[in-house]
Amino acid sequence: MALLHRATLRPTKLELLATWLPGRPWYRGPAGVEVRSRGAYRFDDPADAVGIETMLVGPADGPVHQVPLTYRAAPLDGADDWLVGTADHSVLGPRWVYDGCGDPVYAAVLAHAILSGSGQAEQYVEVDGRRELREPTMTIVAGNPGAPSTGGVRPTADEDATLVVTDSVELVVVRRPGLGAVDAAGAVLSGSWDGQPTAVPLAYARAR
Fold it and tell me: Where is the Maltokinase N-terminal cap domain (predicted)?
């Protein structure tokens, strides 16, 4: 379960991404333009310390890009190359926002979601002391039992996907889902969203 706060983030997630995305090798679109959210899904951190959200975003007239994000209360050692930016959360304080492909917590929960079929976390917002369920903006599906532990991450990015190699699992995060084929194999996480009614591959996982 993901418990969301009624809060403001400055700069916003989309403002951070509009600045960060043009420097990625897999981004297709102009620099200096707003990006829009097309959908998002969340996973739970079992330790309840790291926020984990995957956003589908893109410029108004460009392709959809998949960006897994992790939100941390302090910098992640050794992950400077994967830092999207920092922001001020009106409830939780300073947040360090990372591309999840460089975060071992994201790698572990993604592997578990794909290989155990656990799916996305239910999202709740606290309103006047009550928890209200937030309807998801995406549907994701996965299958195949048996999720191993992952260990450290060794991520590399190319023009279509990011490969995350861990001690026990290889993960492939598709950066522009629905556009072209990604050379990957293994159990698949697929998803659909408004404007993409049929499910397309979002990520792959296979044991090493």
Answer: 20-103
